[in-house]
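Weekly sync notes, structure subgroup
Attendees: PM, AL, DS (notes)

Item 1: joint prediction request from the bench team. They want all two components modeled as one assembly rather than separately. Inputs as received:
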Amino acid sequence: MNDLVEIVGLTKAYDARNIAVNNMTLTLPKGRIIGLLGPNGSGKTTLIKMMNGLLVPTQGSIKINGHFPGAETKARVAYLPDKTYLNHSQKVSELLVFYQDFYQDFEIDKAKKMLENLGIDPSSKMKTLSKGTKEKVQLILVMSRNADLYILDEPIAGVDPAARDYILKTIINNYNPEASIILATHLIGDIESVLDEVIFLRYGQLVLYNSVDNIREQQGKSVDAYFREVFAC
Amino acid sequence: MAWELDSDRPIYAQLVERIQMQIISGYYPPGGKLPSVRDLATEAAVNPNTMQKAFAELERSGLIITQRTSGRTVTEDIGMIGEIKQELAKEHLKDFIEKMKELGITKEEILSLISESVN
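Output from the run, pasted for the record:
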């Protein structure tokens, strides 16, 4: 079965007027790097939270590898939220052990190697690290898991261009045909060439799901430029 | 280090062009080994599936050969490489001559300009 994520008629309505995700139907295959794009408030984070079992749908369903979000999927989904949830008074080395404890699929040696490559001292406390370095640490922790689905919410937003390049190369290098990565971001131009496909969301609804190359071919412009056209204010 | 790619054209087509150029220029010599899809994708900073698509296209054209045990190599058919080189050269010439015509430069002027530049 090549379908990794099956979304059917998915709706999350907070009340009659606040419908964050509206009747979404979408199937995502394995082995893809997919961009989740849309203006603020378009439902990206709500969708991501439902995939992670942090929110419950009002209607419809999500299945990851055939399972509804729950303990089983949480063991196979690696989530990098846009706001850190890690304990800042802990040292990086302590976080490595924490992750190892928590996740069976965590490859601690891989993480250590990446930290070494970036010159990050494992004995540093998170709170002493710069914003960019913190983001790199969090990404390393998530990418060192051997998951079926990686969900990265704005992984490159607060970092300098060189760090962005490193993060994107790490993502490319970690590519695994059995897993997929969903990358939610506003920095479309920066990551376009790393994406297989993109999802455009607006007002909680699916506007399009297509490959980067198809969009460039059909529209004669980059996905970034096409996005600006579709979502022009 | 990432390859410079136009943002308004499909990526895989540009990858095909670039690798083709590297083969024709001898950067990857006839019979020579090519890097893996993953390594080249990382170097180019593009999606591995897209790089795979480019490789598949080059295999289809016969420029690249996949051997089960030893990975991908450039064809040893120097004739084929030479033909593609000629075709690309002609395309560039065509563009150049059209531009010269637009400028109103005569055939004789074109020839003497080229002679000057090449020497």
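Discussion: The first helix of chain B runs from residue 11 to 24.
Action: AL to compare against the crosslinking data before next sync.
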